[in-house]
């Protein structure tokens, strides 16, 4: 039996563990708040699926004008030989075939796939433009009101109350003819699709900003007392720098979430305006006016009615799920 001596008894030293294992310990890399948010977002499977659908819609919207230019899609060509005497497409399920995967339009015989593909492009263009108008107005007015306070805050608050008090739908119907005449005669916009699109974008955007302005104002009221804002004031920063260099970068999370929530709301609003007759009118296709036209054939040609209704419902649901996922991911306490 061998007794092992203790190295500390005769003036020895305790073995250095680093000498036996000279390798340095692995360094732990820090993660930014953005990376933490994206990690939380990727764990939400439903939000990831919604993101894939949203990306598909955007790719369809961007590619549609090019496919029309290269004659891959032809949303205006009629196929009267495919329409029966009762104005219903010949064949089952609205005339679905290899040449027309979604059938043809009742009454005229235009290809449904070409029209809904280009309709996605117009609907998203209107919704995105209106969302940008609403977000820019809401952010600017909210920052100014929250930072300035006093009579400026009072005026912005009364402007928000006044905007919310207007009956939006009634104003749309009442001002449509006057506004379209102003856009075509005074602003010199081309009649038809361009003037109608601009009118819808302006109305949706000008009536959509108050909610975001109130949210941003509340955030700014707390941010303006922060140390970095006081430091910027001490070094003589201008109001513009305080607004857009110091405060605005700290508001990107609620702005991004509200953008994803405003956009599907405006897609639905465009469809409702098409039903009321104050949006883009045919032959230019949007999901809204295609759905409006399909209502007259809902029983005779259910596929034609179901296609735009499903596409509108899908984009609204996916954008809302994406917005909810971003809101949870960007919340610092979301993982608790």
CATH topology (level 3) name: MetI-like fold
User: Oligomeric state of the chains?
Assistant: single chain
| Class based on secondary structure composition and strand pairing | mainly alpha
Main pleated sheet: none
Percentage of residues in helical conformation: 55-70%
Write the CATH homologous superfamily: MetI-like
Shape: globular
List the uncertain runs: none
Specify the number of helices.
13
Determine the mean pLDDT: 82
Question: Care to describe what's here?
Answer:
The structure is a single chain. The protein has 13 helices and no strands. Helix 4 packs across helix 11 (252-276) and helix 6 crosses helix 7. The chain is mainly alpha-helical. The mean pLDDT is 82. It has one domain: MetI-like (MetI-like fold, Orthogonal Bundle), CATH 1.10.3720.10. It is 65% helix and 0% strand.
Would you summarize the structure shown here?
The protein has about 325 residues and is an all-alpha fold.
């Amino acid at each position: 039996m061998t007794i092992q001596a203790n190295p500390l008894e005769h003036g020895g030293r305790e073995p250095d563990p680093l000498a036996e294992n000279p390798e340095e310990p692995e360094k732990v890399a820090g993660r930014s708040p953005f990376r933490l948010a994206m990690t939380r977002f990727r764990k939400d499977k439903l939000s990831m699926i919604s993101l894939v659908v949203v990306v598909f819609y955007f790719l369809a919207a961007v590619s549609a004008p090019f496919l029309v230019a290269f004659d891959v899609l032809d949303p205006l060509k009629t196929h009267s030989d495919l329409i029966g005497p009762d104005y219903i497409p010949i064949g089952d399920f609205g005339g679905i075939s290899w040449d027309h995967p979604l059938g043809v339009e009742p009454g005229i015989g235009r290809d449904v796939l070409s029209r809904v593909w280009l309709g996605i492009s117009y609907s998203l263009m209107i919704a995105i433009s209106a969302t940008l108008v609403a977000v820019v107005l809401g952010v600017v007015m909210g920052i100014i009101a929250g930072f300035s306070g006093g009579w400026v805050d009072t005026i912005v608050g009364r402007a928000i109350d006044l905007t919310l008090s207007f009956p939006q739908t009634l104003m749309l119907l009442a001002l449509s003819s006057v506004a379209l005449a102003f856009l075509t005669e005074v602003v010199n916009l081309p009649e038809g699709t361009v003037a109608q699109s601009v009118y819808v974008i302006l109305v949706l955007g000008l009536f959509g900003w108050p909610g975001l302005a109130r949210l941003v104002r509340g955030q700014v009221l707390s941010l303006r007392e922060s140390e970095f804002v006081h430091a910027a004031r001490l070094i003589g920063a201008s109001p513009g720098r305080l607004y857009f260099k110091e405060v605005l970068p700290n508001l990107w999370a609620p702005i991004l979430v509200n953008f994803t929530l405003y956009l599907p709301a405006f897609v639905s609003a465009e469809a409702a305006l098409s039903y009321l007759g104050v949006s883009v009118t045919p032959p230019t296709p949007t999901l809204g006016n295609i759905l409006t036209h399909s209502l007259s054939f809902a029983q005779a040609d259910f596929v034609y009615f179901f296609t735009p209704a499903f596409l509108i419902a899908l984009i609204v649901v996916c954008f809302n799920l994406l917005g909810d996922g971003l809101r949870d991911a960007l919340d610092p306490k979301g993982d608790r």
